[in-house]
Predict the structure of Response regulatory domain-containing protein.
Amino acid sequence: MPAEPMNRAILVVDDNPDIHVLMERMLVPKPIHDPDMLRGLNDLEARLFGAEPPEEPPDLLHGLRFSIDSAHSGRDGIALVQANPRKYFLAFVDMRMPPGIDGIQTIKGIWSVAPDIYTVICTAYSDYSWDEIASELGCAPNLLILRKPFEAIEVRQIATTFARMYDSLSGVKTSVNQLEEELVIAMESVSQLEERSRALLAEIAEPCLLLDREGEILGANPSAHDLFGVDERLLYGRDVASVLVDVQAPLPSARAVARSRLVCPHSRPLEASVTLTPLGPQVGSAGELIARIRVNHDA
């Protein structure tokens, strides 16, 4: 049995009760069997919106379902959003609602609680210009102006389009949040691995460097500090070739032995045998290596 489609909540803020009746009819359509009631609603729609209602197809909302909460003043609309900031994806807000606050102040109050709500400001040409609205609310990407008189098809198109956009953005946000959580876990794992690697370095008597596959120095034990004449902070982040001239990236994925000249600022040039040992659980796995350095003092 198919799942019921999700109801998406819409807030309508308008001081005219007839607007709420018609918004309900446009966005939450129900079959009307009483011809007198149907005629009355059609007359009301024509009077408010200036057009005769057209013949409507059976699926007006492309399979989407909406629910509507009504507020008859700006402050009531703000209070509904404050009570449940994540409930609404869309708000239709009238510009003029005397004697209370106007649509501009209402939207500011709504956005102070839920800044991502898609908002349609319903205004007559004589109310505010676009420049005046933009100066108050900014050129917000979630703001749309709907001029009065408007038609049912405009309201339905706005609601269905914004619903699809909201669903898409919600999916992106969910994916980003999951990636952030995975990144935190991965960073914690890397940090733990580095701590274990440094502890292992400290237990080895011979000079050792901790490297990644690209040859970046991630750490060094005290014997390496003494050999190269610098502390770990100055070695960290350098290319291994800056101290082991003949060890070049990319480093091998399996254990290997090489000979290399050393760069030691406080001593004559030295040569050494360098043993590279991967720290990964498998041969060939991406990870870190330990470079054990055995200096050839007879060279």
The chain has two domains: 7-176, 204-296. The mean pLDDT is 80.
